[in-house]
Amino acid sequence: MGELRDDLGFLLARISGDVVRAANAALAVESLRVRQYSVLALTCDFAEGISQRRLARELGLDPSQIVSLVDELVAAGLVERRLAAADRRTRLVTATGAGRRKRERAANLAAAGAREALRSLSDEEQATLRVLLSKAATAALDEAEPRSL
Amino acid sequence: MGELRDDLGFLLARISGDVVRAANAALAVESLRVRQYSVLALTCDFAEGISQRRLARELGLDPSQIVSLVDELVAAGLVERRLAAADRRTRLVTATGAGRRKRERAANLAAAGAREALRSLSDEEQATLRVLLSKAATAALDEAEPRSL
DNA sequence: TATTGTTATACTCTATAACTATA
DNA sequence: TATAGTTATAGAGTATAACAATA
Fold first, then answer.
1. Which of A116, A67, A66 is nearest to B9 (CA)?
2. Residue A70 and residue B66: Cα distance in Å, rounded?
3. Within the 76-115 window of chain B, which residues sit less than 8 Å (CB to CB) from chain A?
């Protein structure tokens, strides 16, 4: 039996915690936390708007968690909720101009925080990490409902 | 500016969340959660006992969080707290026989959960991930106070 | 009947500060 | 005065269940 330091699950949680901490600290100047930032960023990635259901799926959260996050971003004037013409059950969340500008600034801050927390890894190693995690994330998404807005 | 899906910090948090969820589900049959498991496992890794301060440092937690975690493990008969002879301020936490046996079972369960959550990555890719994260974790530890029990 | 969004609730985790006992 | 552990508290994150509106 290996030691805890070799446990992949533990290592992921440990490093993720450090990176989230650093990113939250970096994002504080924009009055954002990583959770809100991720919702804003994903919204910006979908110019036509994205449903709250899909936001939840992409972020690995429960749909009920999305409600208050979007509420906060709406209150800050960074995104808007509008009814989808095709299906009036769904709300399409779209970024405002202010939201897009904030997203740009926040992305730089968050990336700098993460890079700092992972500075013991070379740029190439960080790139390898990104490729592996991206592959796992894409697979996780494709499994849980391949389609839908 | 890249998309959120290329954000290393986001990917770490996203995948870590999936893996922790899977590990918690797998550990339920042993009435453990990953957080308690990590304390138990680390305690087992130090046969002579480990101070709560060091537990906190290795796990990336605040010392105040360790108290109740150790309390729970003591109540379950998995670890013991005893005063260090050299410095009576420090409590050395040591695993009991039952604790060591549970750790073995729990480690297998947690590893299986993590492997399942990361099944889209080959064994080799998971090994690469482990090496990179291990390097980052070791560096993080060496920075914050290189020595001490 | 099934799905989207919402509300409510309970529990876990994180972050800080203050306190005690020892050194 | 500094350090190990403890207590307390507030806020953020996670997990479920139930409900209204719409399909």
1. A116
2. 34
3. 103-104, 107, 110-111, 113-114
